[in-house]
Amino acid sequence: MKLTHYDQAKIKAKISTKEKDFNIRFNQIKLPNGDYDGPFGREITYETPGKGEVWLIIGKSNMASGNTKGSFTVSVE
Questions:
Q1: Range list of β-strands (E), 1-77
Q2: pTM for the complete prediction?
Q3: For residue 69, what are the contacts with CB-CB under 8 A and spacing of at least 6?
Q4: How many CB atoms within 10 Å of residue 54?
Q5: CB within 8 Å of 35: residues ≥ 6 apart
Q6: Residue 15 burial by Cβ neighbours in a 10 Å radius (0-12, 13-18, 19+)
Q7: Is the Cβ–Cβ distance between 51 and 3 less than 8 Å?
Q8: Cα dihedral angle (75, 9, 39, 31), rounded to 10 degrees?
Q9: Residues 23, 68: contact at Cβ < 8 Å?
């Protein structure tokens, strides 16, 4: 998920799904300065240094089992 022109001091996002045993999380965040951080869980609150493009990279956790296909939504505050 790519957020262009992001100008908030921090980002707060959440993955929601109705699937049971769904293996999904925020794997990484790419910051406007090009740095990456992660992994995270299904919720993330992160201070974003600077303004610009922020990527929320979503995927499965290799350390967990569960379904890797299904529907989900991402909400960003």
A1: 2-6, 10-16, 25-30, 36-37, 43-47, 52-59, 73-76
A2: 0.87
A3: none
A4: 23
A5: none
A6: buried
A7: no
A8: 110
A9: yes
In one-letter notation, the amino acid at residue 37 is D
Amino acid at 19: E
How many alpha carbons lie under 13 Å from residue 36 in its C-beta half-sphere? 7
Instruction: Quote the tokens at residue 32.
Output: 């406007």
Instruction: Pick the closest to residue 43 from 60, 62, 24, 61 (CA basis).
Output: 24
Predicted confidence (pLDDT) per residue in 42-74, tens digit: 999 999 988 999 999 999 988 888 888 889 999
What strand order describes the sheet that includes 43-47?
43-47, 10-16, 73-76
What is the CA 35 to chain-centroid distance, rounded? 15
